[in-house]
Amino acid sequence: MTLPAILAxxxxxxxxxxxxxxxxxxxxxxxxxxxxxxxxRFEAEDEEGVxxxxxxxxxxxxxxxxxxxxxxxxxxxxxRILCDDKTxxxxxxxxxxxxxxxxxxxxxxxHTKQVAE
Length: 117
Hints:
Blueprint: H1 3-18, E1 20-26, E2 29-45, E3 51-62, E4 67-68, E5 71-72, E6 80-83, E7 86-90, E8 99-101, E9 107-116
Antiparallel strand pairs: 1-2, 1-6, 2-3, 3-9, 4-5, 6-7, 7-9, 8-9
């Protein structure tokens, strides 16, 4: 068994127990996912030296499961995730991408903020 296959199997096992059903949308396209919840702490300092702390609501999904219109896709700023009757918007943390991938690209950690109940 390859490392990506092992990581995918471990993710699916964890998601079967602790996962939440979500709908990922970009425009009119959407896909149903089972995600694991997480968070990322982030600090940013502005030009005046004021430090702002932020905690993103993260969704961990398998990259292969994030398929819009039948094609695997990377998360983009502004995409939406509906989960537990709440809406989250994909966002970038500082100058970073709006997601992080594990070294094999098997699993994505998508950074979001809640924008509606």
